[in-house]
Amino acid sequence: MLTIKVDSVWHNIERQQRNDNKKDRLLTAAGIPFMRLRPTGRPSENTIRAQVTEHVDELVRSLHADLRGYDQVRRLLEGLSGVRT
C-alpha cells in the first residue's frame, strides 16, 4: 500500500498544515509509506511523473528483500513509475 498526496497552495495555511501533520502521523503509525507532492504553477504530466518516479525509487530502495511480498511490491512500483530497479 502506498499513499500519494498532491498538495496545493492551500496547504500553506496553518490549519491545513496541522491536518496534514495528523495524516502523516497516522500513515506513519500504520506503516503505510506516503509521499507528498507540491507542484507549483501548472506542471506538465512529465514533471509530475518525474516527481513520483523520484519518490517511488526512494521507496523501492528502502524496502527490504526479506519482506513478505517484496517482489510483488517492487514490480507494482516499477510499473507505476516506469523505472526498473
How would you describe this structure to a colleague?
- The protein is mainly alpha-helical and 85 residues long.
- The protein has one domain (3-81).
- Helix content is 55%, strand content 9%.
- It is built from three helices and two strands, in the order βαβαα.
- A two-stranded parallel ribbon has the order 1-2.
- The model has no long low-confidence stretch (mean pLDDT 78).
Shape: flat
Q: Please give the largest β-sheet.
A: 2 strands, parallel
Cα distance spanning the termini? 18 Å
Gyration radius (Cα, Å) is 14 Å
Strand percentage, roughly? 5-15%
- Poorly predicted tracts of residues: none
Assign a percent range to the helix content.
55-70%
Give me the oligomer status: single chain
State the order of secondary-structure elements, H for helix, E for strand.
EHEHH
Average pLDDT level = 78
Overall structural class, as computed from helix and strand content, comes to: mainly alpha
Number of strands: 2
Number of domains: 1
Secondary-structure topology with pairs:
Layout lengths: L2 E4 L7 H17 L3 E4 L7 H18 L7 H12 L4
Parallel strand pairs: 1-2
Helix pairs in contact: 2-3
